[in-house]
Amino acid sequence: MGKNTRNPAALDLPANNVIESDMTMTPADLKKARNTLGLSQAQLAHILGTDPRTVRKWEAASGTNARGVNPIAAQVVRWMLDGFRPPEFPDR
Questions:
Q1: pLDDT exceeds 70 at position 84
Q2: Least confident of 28-37, 38-47, 56-65
Q3: Does residue 53 carry a pLDDT above 90?
Q4: What is the spatial distance between Cα 23 and Cα 9, in angstroms, rounded to a whole number?
Q5: CA–CA distance, 31 with 10 (Å, rounded to integer)
Q6: Under a CB-based contact definition with an 8 Å cutoff, are residues 28 and 37 in contact?
Q7: Residue at 3 is within a domain
Q8: Which CATH number is 39's domain given?
């Protein structure tokens, strides 16, 4: 079988890229990171295996649709900012 790219432990990521309970990402941080990566909300949702509406809710700073950024999704975004590219990442 090929390399398991869905399991972070199988990715040989640096030890400093672990999920810690105090690591948070604000809605503005997520939006900025997504834009830095050149991804649309739909593309990020596809990579994370979620619905684009969920990404919109994570990026909503306030209002009835706002919800906190999922900490696992935030960590995956941090890994992508550090250079990790999952198979679902769009070719440029």
A1: yes
A2: 56-65
A3: yes
A4: 19
A5: 27
A6: no
A7: no
A8: 1.10.260.40
Q: Is residue 10 part of a domain?
A: no
Retrieve residue 88's tokens. Answer: 């679902």
Question: What's the chain's length in residues?
Answer: 92
Report residue 1 CA to chain centroid gap. 26
Predicted TM-score (pTM) of this structure: 0.71
Domain count for the chain, please give it.
Answer: 1
44 phi, psi to nearest 5 deg: -65, -40
Q: Is there a domain that residue 4 lies in?
A: no
> In whole angstroms, what is the distance from residue 84 CA to residue 82 CA?
6
Q: Give me 63's structure tokens.
A: 């209002």
Three-state DSSP state, 45:
helix
